[in-house]
Structures are given as structure tokens and as C-alpha cells.
Automatic annotation (TrEMBL):
Organism: Agromyces intestinalis
Membrane protein topology class: Multi-pass membrane protein
A molecular function (GO) term: transmembrane transporter activity
PANTHER family: BLR6921 PROTEIN, MAJOR FACILITATOR SUPERFAMILY MULTIDRUG TRANSPORTER MFSC
Localization terms from the record: Cell membrane
Record field: transmembrane: 36-62, 74-92, 104-123, 129-152, 164-186, 192-211, 231-248, 254-276, 296-320, 326-344, 356-377, 383-404, 425-447, 459-480
Protein known as: MFS transporter
GO cellular component terms, semicolon-separated: plasma membrane
SUPFAM superfamilies: MFS general substrate transporter (SSF103473)
Keyword terms of this UniProt record: Cell membrane, Membrane, Transmembrane, Transmembrane helix, Transport
All residue ranges annotated as the Major facilitator superfamily (MFS) profile domain in the record: 38-483
Amino acid sequence: MIGVTVTTGTRSEPAVTAVGGSPAPPAESRFGGRALGLLAVLCGAAFLEGVDIAMFSVALPVIRAELGLATGELQWVVSAYILGYGGFMLLGGRAADLLGRRRVFLVAMAVFLAFSGLGGMATESWMLLTARAVTGIAAAFMMPAGLSIITTSFEEGHARTRALLIYAGIGAAGFSIGLVAGGLLTMLGWRWVFFAPVLVTAVLLALAIPLVPREPAPADGGRGGRRRVDVAGAVTITAAFLLLITAVEQSTHASPVVTTVIAAASVGLFAAFVAIERRAPEPLIPLGFLRRTPLLRAYLAAASLAAGFIGFQFIVVLYLQEFRGWSALETSVALLVLGIDAVLAPTLTPRLVARFGLWPVILGGLVAAAASFLLFVPVGPDWTYAAMFPSFLALGLAFTFAYGPLTVAATARVDDADQGLSGGLLYTAFQFGAAIGLAATSAVLMAVEGRGAVEASRIALVVPIAASVIGIGVGVVAVGRRARARG
């Protein structure tokens, strides 16, 4: 949309005109009837994606035992999904803009369903990792398409902000509830961690077909001329991030020469990506888009939040199950408090944003994340659950306050034709932040595993703590700029 005045957190409903000056199609401004059903389906997809990632974190020790995976291999069960997800997210977001949001959303959901089922039938580690990677690629197309359907179906202002906060809040709740679901399903066998999403996806797909609005597939994004998806750029950036994460993971147990070569290759691919984008007639990421500082702050804060969360979760699950001997179900119940965001994110967070604004609320969430990691530093060999509880509660509050508002901040003041791109960049930031956080945490754990599980856990907490410090720095800058602008 062009000429839209964003009024985040207020009830202002600015006039909307479509690209090129023609009247825009009617936008849904109330949550009733078809609009409510559409929002429910899209929230279900976001919830499913969050649950899918979290369930595997709890099931990792059982998967390790059955398939005989080392710690370095184990993190790739999660990283394979994250790499496919994050690596193709930009392509998925752009494809939604160019090929049609409904088409991309439905096809991606069908692929997600199929490969979740195939993963549950894996008998070798390579089969498992392949299924996870393809499922991640499907999610990379599904999620930005779903987000852009919301941002183009609800009128900018109060209605869209409310829809986005509900959508993001329920998606964040998927991470928390997925921990419990993973524990319950693992009791039946780790393969149910694959099969359960198949059933949920089938129901959502059946509902999405009649509810997701039809649209003509845009041939030019509203800018004239035939447009093509930048596959070369997507492949290059995916390979660059893959090598970067491999370099981080290899840094503690490979020779310095190998690590340096891998890291140098990653840097070279990043440079090649920039060169491709400068010359491509239809770049995956128009470089001018990355000069929008408010959006960059949202992406960086999202990456730091994800890096801290995934790294911390990896540490906690290994500590509870492999050192303390807790079952997957006991671990899941212990982490159930993280699901507080399922209640507070759709209810309390919109009120706080309306009262204080986006970035003050985001900053509060990032500070809560740092508090969570710091509270776990005194972990001991016989820590009671009461001692752990404040850390878990703080992390639940961090997602309550930060995840949804970051989604709004990353889509505000973005034209309809670029909503898929911005959503893709946001989810890319989340996923590669998570991948780097997981790889770095795994690397530290392997480097100090000779010191014992408890001491190794304490030392590895430096990764999520450092990630949270970066996020807080971004939040402080954003709040300071907001205060100066208002002054």
C-alpha cells in the first residue's frame, strides 16, 4: 500500500489506497465471520511451526540414543530444519509477493505435511536430516506467505496491529507448548514428533482452502514488467549461512585451518550474494530495502532473542535429561511455565503496546530474557525445581513482551508489494539467530565437556547471555531514538 499512515497501537484507521492509486480491496477491520476464521487458520499454521521446532528439542536425547548421534551431529537435527527454513525464507517471502500468497501458502503447507510424515519413517540419520531440511524449506514458504496474508487482509492501524500481536503471540506459544507436547509424544516414541504435525497440518490445510482469499497471481508486483524470482541469490545466501554455521560448530574440534577455510568461503559467498543482488534485474533483497534502519533494528533484535532462547533451551534439556536423569515428560512439565505467553501475549501485550509503544515493550522482553539466563548461572548438580522456576518464568515473559511487537515493528510502513519480503527477512533473522545460537552453544559445550556437565552448562550460558546483551543494546537505541523523535 502507498500513502498509508501507520498508527501502531492506536485505533486510528487511515485511508488506504492500492499501489498505483486505484482503490484497494476492502480490508477486514473486525474479527468476525470469515476474518476470524482466516486469522484462526493462519495462527494455527504459526502455532504448528513453533510446536514443530520445540518438540524436537525435547526429543533430541531419545533420538540420539536410537540413532547413535554424537553431540555435534545431534544439533543438526534442529539445524537442518533451521537452515532450510532460514535459508529459503527470503525466496519464500518474495515468491508470495510475486506468485500469489494463497498459492504459495497452500502448496507449502502440503509439502510440510508430506515430509513430516516421511521423517517419521526415517531409519538412518541422513534420512532424518533430509526430511527435516525439506520440512524447513516448506515452512520457509508457508510462514512469510501467512504473515503477508494478514498484513494485506487487515486494515493498517488498530485492526492489523491487534491481528499481528495475536498471530505472533500464538506462534510464540507454540514454542512453549511444543516442549510439553514433545515430552508426551516422545513417551509414545520419538517418531510421533513427526506424525502428530501431519494430523494437525491436514486439518489446517482443509480449512485453509476455503478460507484463504483468492487473488490473481501478481506478474509484476505492481511495478510493471515481468518479474522473476531470484533463485541464484537464494541459493548463494543459503550456502553462505550454512558454511558460517558449520564454521562455528567446527571451531572447537576441527583444526584452525579447516575452520578458517570454511569461514572464508562463507564470507566469499556473502560477497557474491551482494554482487548478485546489485546486478539482478529482480533481486531477492533490493539493497535499498536494507537501508531502512527501523526494520534492521527489528531484524537484529529478533535474531538475538532467538539465539538466546534456542541456546538456553539446548543447555537446559541436556542438563535435565542427561545429567539429572529426568524423563522427556518431566522436562516438558518443568518447562511448561514458558507457555505463559500463550495467555499473556494475545491479551496483555496489545494493551502494553497501546500504552507504551512497541519498542519499550520489546526492550522489556529482551531484559527479561537476559534475566532468565543470568538466573540460571548458579545451576548446581542437585538444584530444585523451585530454584529453576524464576529463570523459566522470566523466559516466558520475554517471549510475551518481545515476539509479537517485533513482528509489528518489522512490517510497519512497508508497502503491500514488499510485505512478503519483510516477513521473510524477519523470519530469516529468527531462524539464523537460532541456528547461530545453537551452533555456538553446542561448540562451547563440546569445548568444555571435560569439566563436567554442570560446569559446562554454566560456561555455555555465556552464549545466550551475550545474545541478550546485543538485543538489549538494540532496544535501548530504538527507545532512545523514539524518545528524541517525540521530544
